[in-house]
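Figure 2 data, in text form.
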Amino acid sequence: MKTLVKTFAAAALIAVSTFAMAAEGPGSKSANVNLFTADLALGHYIAVTTEGESAGVEQLFAEDFSQKVQSANAKTNSRNEVVKYLKKQKGEKLNCMVTTDIIEESADYRIAKVTLKFEDFTKTDLVTLVREGNDWKVSGSINAYK
């Protein structure tokens, strides 16, 4: 009887492990997020940039993504630089009020103005999202500070 219980326990453990690996997919390093609509992609972008969300960061950005920061020392950040920075910010929540306005949209792209109001300054982020296959991706970001 003990052998039968051990056999069932081992079979259950193997089944659970197999299902977990299949759900992650081959070579998966992070959880997939639902980016099937522009609203979901924009919401996830805001969660990643302001709430320290780290799941699906690499999935969120288009391969040709770039971020331009408008200031006295204007700077352009590559996709890899931004992804690396956001991964380091995992769990860090910004103390700001967030508002979003849709500037322009069509079936395949959307431009949104995301405003982050801090105590002493305001950050405006113009975000461009594009449809790539069945998912939406962030393809560009322009940041300005007041």
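Caption note: The first helix runs from residue 2 to 24.
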